[in-house]
Design a protein that fits this description.
Blueprint (H helix, E strand, L loop, with lengths): L9 H5 L2 H28 L3 H13 L4 E2 H8 L3 H13 L3 E5 L7 E5 L1 H26 L1 H21 L5
Antiparallel strand pairs: 1-3, 2-3
Helix pairs in contact: 2-6, 3-5, 3-6, 4-5, 6-7
Length: 164
């Protein structure tokens, strides 16, 4: 490879360590999402996408989370976030509440059903993460990996444009 990052052959490009690391990260993430998501849905009836919504809302506390924050956090358009929230509302997992400070903003909160399902699904998910990540890497490497993934997540979030 030359200094300007051009490649001479497709094989050289495909085997570049930077490209390989990203491909492996995406491959592992896709496989783990499939494995863990399938078990989550099988055991709780909750899709991984709705589980992530419940986690986001749960992290926000009792005050609720604006739909725009859900869009930004899940990298969805505002329409995509609205549809995701509506699925949660339709299943009785989340509720929309108008903001007390801005009537244009809808805050998303957990219902008691959503809270209970989040707790049950989180226990299952934590066990599965333990089995498929921590047990595979070992505790020390898993902790290093968690720090690295957090740094990547923060960096990527800071590079995202506001979601439409």
């Amino acid at each position: 490879m030359t200094a300007d990052h051009t490649f001479r052959t497709p094989q050289e490009a495909a085997n570049d360590p930077r490209i390989l690391i990203f491909g492996r990260l995406m491959g592992a993430a896709n496989r783990l999402e499939y494995i863990l998501g399938r078990e989550l849905e099988s055991e709780t009836g909750l899709s991984h996408t709705l589980f992530e919504l419940l986690l986001m809302v749960g992290r926000s506390g009792d005050g609720g989370l604006p739909v725009r924050d859900i869009a930004q956090g899940r990298v969805l358009t505002s329409g995509g976030a609205t549809r995701l929230v509506q699925r949660g509302v339709d299943q009785g997992l989340v509720a929309r509440t108008p903001s007390k400070t801005d009537a244009r903003v809808q805050l998303i909160t957990l219902t008691s059903t959503g809270r209970a399902l989040l707790l049950r699904a989180s226990a299952l998910h934590a066990r599965n993460v333990e089995r498929h990540i921590v047990d595979v890497l070992g505790a020390e490497d898993a902790a290093d990996f968690a720090r690295s993934v957090r740094a990547l997540s923060i960096s990527a979030a800071g590079s995202l444009p506001p979601m439409p």
